[in-house]
């Protein structure tokens, strides 16, 4: 990482875990485990029903909160959806868009991800745009082509000002929740390719300032080596973010 250009970011994606009470207990324990002013930016993404409670429990700490998904329309007859203005109203700073589980399980396309990212930016929040390849794509040598296509599609049509706010998270699908992790060299290669795409399309200044996170079975034991890579600016953490001690250890690794 280059701290002079990019502040590390560690985000915990709690997925479909934790009641409201469990969520507030976790964020309170995390606040105690972290330094008062961590060098890395720390974000947690609870379920929708716990967002307001987590916001209140994290008040006065360095922990920001994020949503795990969003719908691109601001309002209307869209039963079951949650819009960007509603998330902004809850004080969310970030919204995860395009996670592989959304793409695989719920049929989200690159166009959907682009519309969601634009909606998040329009509501004054920051999208964490996810990308990643399947095991089949990796074994076929299609990793970079697939990932760069996803990134390019997600950012299409955004202004330069909006592009400068976006966070990208590379999560190889085959490493999510499996215990398998891309090697630091493999992860760096893809991160470097993403930054290269940003530089080619939008200029080196924007590329150098964009934070690119790694996700996929990130744990305290592998976090430091991953985040020591020059183009890895933090982590999007799944299972290890559900325990305060393990998540705090990953934050500490990002600050090293």
H and E string: EHEHEHEHHEHHHEHHEHEH
Distance between the termini: 10 Å
CATH fold-level name? TIM Barrel
Strand order of the largest sheet: 1-2-3-4-5-6-7-8
**CATH homologous superfamily grouping:** Aldolase class I
Which CATH architecture would you pick?
Answer: Alpha-Beta Barrel
- Please tell me what the overall shape is: globular
Indicate the low-confidence ranges by residue numbers.
none
What percentage of amino acids are in beta strands? 5-15%
Protein structure class: alpha/beta
Q: How confident overall, as mean pLDDT?
A: 95
What is the percent of helical residues? 40-55%
Describe this structure in words.
The protein is of the alpha/beta class and 256 residues long. It has a single domain, classed as Alpha-Beta Barrel (TIM Barrel), CATH 3.20.20. Helix content is 45%, strand content 14%. The chain has an eight-stranded parallel beta barrel with strand order 1-2-3-4-5-6-7-8, surrounded by six helices. α1 packs parallel to α2 and α1 crosses α12. It is globular, with a radius of gyration of 17 Å. The mean pLDDT is 95.
Characteristic terms for this protein:
12 helices, 8 strands, 256 residues, TIM Barrel, alpha/beta
Task: Describe the protein's topology.
Elements: E1 9-13, H1 20-33, E2 41-45, H2 51-58, E3 63-67, H3 84-89, E4 94-97, H4 100-106, H5 110-122, E5 126-131, H6 135-139, H7 143-155, H8 160-163, E6 167-170, H9 184-202, H10 204-209, E7 212-215, H11 220-227, E8 234-237, H12 244-255
Parallel strand pairs: 1-2, 1-8, 2-3, 3-4, 4-5, 5-6, 6-7, 7-8
Helix pairs in contact: 1-2, 1-12, 5-7, 7-9, 11-12
